[in-house]
Amino acid sequence: MIGYVTLGTSDLPRAARFYDAIAAEMGTGRMMEFGEFIAWGTPGGGAGIGLTKPFDGKAASVGNGVMVALEAKDPAQVQRLYEIALANGGTDEGAPGPRGDGGFYAAYFRDPDGNKLNAFVMDAG
C-alpha cells in the first residue's frame, strides 16, 4: 500500500500554491510541513502527496514515465481539478474526457515543475 508520494520542486512556495489549490478541491490540506518539505493529505486517510527540494541540493527534475493519479469523486470534480491546475501554473497534458472502454474518465496536467498528474474517476460512463 502506498502511504505517500513525494515529488521534487525547485520553487517550494510556487509549487505549494499549486498543491494547496488542488488539495482544497479534494477536501484536504497540508498535514505536515517543515524546512523544505510539505505534505498534503488526511492523517489516517488515503495516500498523500509531498513536495521537497531535493536532499542532494541539485535541481529537481521530472521522472520520465512517472505520474501521480488523483482519485476524484465524479467527472465534474475531474473538470474542476483540471481547471484549478491550469489556473495555478499547471500545463495541459490531455483535457478531461473518457479514456478507453472501461468507464475511465480522466484529465492530465503537469504541475509548475513539470511533474505529471492526472485526475480520474472510474465508472463515470
TrEMBL record:
PANTHER family: BLL2941 PROTEIN, GLYOXALASE FAMILY PROTEIN (AFU_ORTHOLOGUE AFUA_5G14830). This is VOC family protein. It holds the Pfam family Glyoxalase. InterPro entries: Glyas_Bleomycin-R_OHBP_Dase, Glyas_Fos-R_dOase_dom, VOC_core. Residues 1-122 form the VOC domain. It comes from Novosphingobium tardum.
